[in-house]
Design a protein that fits this description.
By secondary structure, the chain is mainly beta. The chain has 1 helix and 15 strands; from the N terminus they run E-E-E-E-E-E-E-E-E-E-E-H-E-E-E-E. It has one helix at residues 163-171; strands at residues 5-12, 20-27, 33-37, 44-50, 56-66, 73-82, 94-98, 104-110, 116-126, 133-143, 149-160, 174-179, 184-188, 192-196, 199-202. The chain is globular. It starts with a strand and ends in a 12-residue tail after the last strand.
Length: 214
């Protein structure tokens, strides 16, 4: 938050969908780097977000990754890393939220105050045939700790007929960027919108999959 350090989530891909996970924290003054790693393969860190004071780092970790890239399965947990601790084990970071009701966390940004997180999640409901079903997708605010949902920003039910359509349905709802003390965000719901203190306002589209930040 004060520009002293840069945090990066690193995914080193190997054969199949079996990435190795690292988080690096770099001093912007000296370039000194500290690295936290997860033993084994099949973990993928995402969405690092600093807490106020710059000691704790929230991040989303996908692990237990199985299957091909087009239709993989994984567990998703929002974790909190103490960057002042001696351990360099990424899995020592404390789990502070998981997907409620079997929902899978697509992405998550922890509020700098540490009391809530803005997440995009989905729950795929199996149909009568493999690859067919319904994806329940939503952007919501969850309480930390515990992961209790306190606000559903937007929600949709999307039918899919194959793995590609399933992944596309999940990707239509995302948290793109969070600013201030977490009260402002850019989201896909499913079109580009801004969220200000719980109020959603649609913005002009910037293409099929905008990558934007405050």
């Amino acid at each position: 938050p004060d520009g002293r350090q840069l945090a990066a989530a690193i995914q080193t891909f190997t054969s199949g969908v079996r990435p190795r996970a690292e988080i690096k924290v770099v001093s912007m003054r000296t370039g000194a780097t500290r690295t936290w790693t997860a033993a084994g393969k099949g973990q993928l860190p995402r969405d690092p977000s600093w807490q106020a004071g710059g000691r704790y780092l929230g991040f989303l970790l996908w692990d237990h990754i199985r299957g091909p890239a087009s239709s993989f399965t994984a567990r998703a947990q929002l974790r909190l890393l103490d960057t002042a601790a001696a351990s360099r084990d990424l899995l020592s970071a404390r789990v502070i939220a998981t997907g409620a009701d079997g929902g899978f966390l697509q992405n998550a940004f922890l509020n700098p105050g540490g009391r809530s997180a803005l997440v995009a999640s989905s729950r795929n409901i199996a149909g009568s045939r493999p690859g067919h079903g319904t994806a329940i997708v939503r952007v919501q605010v969850v309480r930390i700790p515990g992961g209790r949902v306190t606000q559903v920003v937007c929600r949709a039910s999307v039918r899919y007929r194959n793995a590609r359509q399933m992944n596309a349905a999940d990707g239509r709802f995302s948290v793109l960027s969070v600013a201030g003390q977490g009260q402002h965000a850019l989201v896909l719901c499913p079109s580009l919108a801004r969220l200000d203190a719980g109020r959603l306002t649609t913005l002009p589209g910037l293409g099929q999959l905008p990558i934007v930040a405050w």
